[in-house]
Amino acid sequence: MIWAVVPAAGSGLRMRADRPKQYLPLAGKTVIQHSIERLLSNQNIRGVVVAVAAEDGWWPHLQWSAGDRIHRVEGGAERSDSVCNALQWLSGTADDQDWVLVHDAARPCLRAADLQSLIESLQEDAVGGILAAPVSDTIKRADAKQKIAETVDRSVLWRALTPQMFRLGVLRAALEQIKADGVAVTDDAEAVEYLKLQPCLIEGAVTNIKVTHPGDLLLAEEIILRELEER
Ligand code: CTP
Ligand code: MG
User: Fold this and answer.
1) Atom 6 in ligand 1: which residue has the minimum CA distance?
2) pLDDT digit string (tens) for 182-214?
3) How far apart are the first and last CA of the chain?
4) Regarding the domain with residue range 2-230, which homologous superfamily does it belong to in the CATH classification?
């Protein structure tokens, strides 16, 4: 069984918009609607648990948010807390061995083929893994004076994307552990790595961007419209 978790409780400070970025309009829908529909259109995914901020007044107004494969839980102070709350709810419904795909509400351009390839590649894996893209720029390490200390070997560097796919029990244990130890993580894999487990990197398209800064919305629109034209 495969479930999806969508952390959507951020306030989108870097976007500097009049509302949390997941509710901004994008190609005729909201950002979050694209993100969730792309998960739900994969028939392997049983349901989506969305973590929404307690004070969020936008979510209830989305017509489609009451769908029977969609469940809302309350978000937390950090992304990892939001994911944790969703996993807690899932634990009452799903098995510890079930797979969970965690996907940012702010990634509306996930390709169906990448989602399917992540699921198929990891189905038999002991740990799980993430969609990721090889780094294409030359990478420099800076010293304290912002001078180049060294050129880093980029052939071993990847950018972490989402979805990130782990077994429910393992991911819950990992997030509980980092919380107990007061460790901050920026993605789910980092929590699993903290347990000394090694997630796989599954190559996905670089167009799976996270809408973060104002210019990203135009880029996302471009990506989605281009994808529609290609069909
Ligand atoms: N998120 C969440 N709970 C939080 C913080 C973030 O569910 N306490 C979600 C966001 O809604 C987003 C995803 O995690 O879908 C990735 O986080 P990010 O891009 O950092 O979004 P924001 O935190 O909203 O943006 P910013 O950091 O610019 O404020
Ligand atoms: Mg943030």
Assistant:
1) 10
2) 999 999 999 999 999 999 999 999 999 999 999
3) 30
4) Spore Coat Polysaccharide Biosynthesis Protein SpsA; Chain A (3.90.550.10)
